[in-house]
Design brief:
about 375 residues; alpha/beta; Rossmann fold; 2 domains; 6-stranded parallel beta sheet; 13 strands; about 15% strand; globular
Length: about 375
């Protein structure tokens, strides 16, 4: 199937706006990779006001970006596009996702896939009977259930939730847009991420407390939706939403960047954040909270540093000399450029599609 150019249609949360979500950059890297390999792409995005006000990619050159107003438009306006597609993918957290899946399932004539960029959250919702964007009964509709989370979760998707075929499709980085800028570091440690209540305690422990202990060092936190009640030390610079066009400069100006993982992702394991790949591509080594499966992506102590306490972070910042920091940086960057670019992920995606009719899932 993948020996020829494919017509691939994706219905996702957002491609046009990275504001408050990690879906847009994930789709952009993957789709740029697929476009570079010669495939035709369409992205259907629900036109909602909160993303319309914060669009940072209005005219992508790698796909047709089309907005729709309501689920019924898929059947009345876009049915022919959906029918013509060789592959149709519905993403997680699509508004009215259950109705979208039901509608598209009747229209799709090619491979029908789901791309879950929130797998641990999805399974937690389904386990308690919630069907915000996919119903439990719908998992078996898909030829392939692509999951942002690998490891044992893939078997759980098949055995417990009856997905026909569960495959890992991790996030990736567009290496043409994420690279060292040559700017000198001005922050000792930074963090890029939207406010999340379950990540906030770790941010307070591994960055805010560290900033209080090291008042001579400089820190930065970029991301939207942080409550006004948070008290930031004077040596922490705050930025609101940072568009992807500014990420490379942001990472290049840090000595280290902090990666924090949501509780559901920690519990599931094998859920690498795109921050890890983006920072490494920009030549910025990461300090991460530990989680199962991390060593499958970065070797701790060699390509990444791990921390659970403020003391750990303080030691890394004060005891890591520049030669050692560069060693970690170079290992991480080589690894990411070899295995975790949008092009590499696009090839993995196409390889899995080519094996849909072969018994047994693709390797994680």
């Amino acid at each position: 199937m993948t020996a020829r150019s494919l017509d691939i249609l994706i219905l996702g949360l957002s491609l046009s706006s990275s504001w408050g979500n990690g879906h847009a950059t994930t789709f952009r890297a993957l789709m740029r990779g697929l476009h570079g390999l010669g495939h035709r792409l369409t992205f259907l995005e629900r036109d909602v006001p909160w993303y319309a006000r914060h669009r940072d990619l209005k005219e992508p050159g790698f796909c047709d970006l089309i907005f729709y107003d309501k689920v019924q438009d898929l059947d009345t306006v876009h049915a022919d596009r959906i029918r013509r597609a060789d592959v149709v993918i519905v993403g997680s957290f699509v508004p009215d996702g259950v109705a979208v899946i039901a509608t598209v399932a009747t229209l799709s004539t090619g491979l029908f896939c789901f791309y879950d960029i929130d797998t641990p959250v999805t399974l937690a919702k389904l386990s308690c009977g919630a069907d915000e964007y996919i119903a439990r009964r719908q998992l078996r509709l898909f030829d392939v259930y692509f999951s942002f989370t690998g490891g044992p979760t893939l078997k759980r998707l098949q055995d417990e939730f009856h997905a026909r075929r569960a495959e890992p499709l991790y996030c990736s980085v567009d290496e043409t847009r994420y690279a060292p800028t040559g700017e000198a570091p001005c922050w000792d440690l930074g963090y890029l991420g939207t406010y999340s209540p379950d990540r906030q305690p770790a941010l307070e422990r591994l960055l805010i407390e560290v900033a209080q202990r090291l008042p001579e060092r400089r820190f930065v936190v970029a991301g939207a939706q942080y409550p006004a009640t948070i008290r930031w030390p004077e040596n922490i610079e705050r930025m609101d939403h940072l568009p992807p066009s500014q990420h490379a400069s942001f990472y290049s100006r840090q000595r280290f960047t902090l990666n924090l993982t949501r509780a559901d992702m920690v519990a599931a394991g094998w859920s690498p954040s795109v921050r890890l790949f983006e920072a490494a591509a920009c030549g910025c080594p990461a300090i991460s909270d530990p989680w199962r499966g991390l060593e499958d992506f970065f070797t701790p102590g060699e390509a990444i540093q791990l921390a659970t306490t403020a003391e750990d972070v303080c030691a890394i910042l004060t005891e890591t000399g520049e030669p050692r920091r560069q060693e970690i940086t170079n290992r991480a960057r080589r690894l990411v450029l070899d295995r975790h670019t949008g092009t590499a992920r696009a090839r993995e995606f196409l390889h899995c599609l080519s094996r849909v009719d072969v018994a047994g899932p693709c390797a994680a």
